[in-house]
Amino acid sequence: MVYLNQKLKSSNRFNMATDKKSFLLYCDLIHTVEQLTDEQAGDLFKHILRYVNDQEPQTENVITRIAFEPIKQSLKRDLQKYEDIRKRNQDNARKRWDATASSGIPNDTKNADSDSVSVSVSVTDKKEIKGFVKPTIEQLKEYMSEQGMNDIAENWLNHYEANGWMVGKNKMKDWKASVRTWKTNNLKVTTNKPKLATL
């Protein structure tokens, strides 16, 4: 809050943050803009863009001034939030840096002596580290055969490829467990079907 107030006190005008490349316009602004003609809405939009680019826009158009005032206040509040978060993050980074610097990590890491240890990881280890690995169609057919399932490997594979390897709302972790679940669910469906009477 201090930073913004200093900016306002130092001059009568309001400046957007240096190097800030974006700003927020809220969706409920549509209620105001819909009541303006296209020309008035265009003037308002240009006025907003001039304001956020620190061009100190002035207008004699009363409609633009009235419509812009709540937007201007909102932009000021949003900039204050931005500055507060930026300052807090800067302070936190400085605290982390000071804490690590005092714990024996050299300040000048470019010229620091170091003992390095390299660890190589094989390709198969990387797959295990990452977690889930998609099965090949051959692996799938082989596992389904072991489970005594009909050859539905392509259907199963197409289903999970299409939904991004999601099981419900979660990423798949174990494709073999998913195959077993399909088997169990398929058995439930086939055993719970009512029998049709024959004539």
What does this structure look like?
The structure is a single chain. With 199 residues, this protein is mainly alpha-helical. The protein has two domains: 2-102, no CATH class; 126-192, no CATH class. It is built from eight helices and two strands. The protein has helices at residues 2-10, 30-33, 38-52, 62-102, 123-130, 137-146, 153-162, 175-192, and strands at residues 166-167, 170-171. It has a two-stranded antiparallel ribbon with strand order 1-2. Strand 1 (166-167) and strand 2 (170-171) form a beta hairpin. The longest helix is centred in the middle third of the chain and has 41 residues, at 62-102.
Characteristic terms for this protein:
single chain; 199 residues; mainly alpha; 2 domains; 8 helices; 2 strands; 2% strand; elongated
SSE arrangement, N to C: HHHHHHHEEH
Residue ranges: pLDDT <50 for 5 or more in a row?
A: 1-12, 124-129
Spatial sequence of strands, sheet with the most strands: 1-2
Structural domain tally: 2
Q: Roughly what is the average pLDDT, rounded to an integer?
A: 77
Q: Radius of gyration from the CA trace? A: 31 Å
> How is the main sheet built?
2 strands, antiparallel
Number of helices: 8
Q: Choose one word for the global shape.
A: elongated
Tally of extended strands? 2
